[in-house]
Amino acid sequence: MIKLKQLLTEKTVKLSTMKDAIFSPDMVQLLGKKGKVGLDKKSVHKLAKIVRTQFGKGKGMGWSFTTEGKLNEGSVTLPNGVKVKIDFKGLTLQSKGKPVFLDRDEMMIFFKATARYLK
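Request: output the structure for the sequence above.
Response:
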């Protein structure tokens, strides 16, 4: 029974060897090797919408990040003030400190975890 309780309270998702996402009920904290960025629910939902329009949504259940077509690169500021730079390689998120970069694989893991933990 203790194992099940630990699984239910576990909210840290490993994005890669040096990056983690820590989920709380209303916020997610991205921890990179050198930087960290906090996102509230509203900002995460806006980021997901932007990524869907930029990278496209694949067929079926998963995200499709393999499209080699033209990508609109640019920057956007999320509702909580985090600046996001979008390019073909991934996302760079920056608040006041050092930026956190998420490549396409890390983004896929992040958005799957977001759908699970930030309902």
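Residues 58 and 64 are 4 Å apart (CA to CA).
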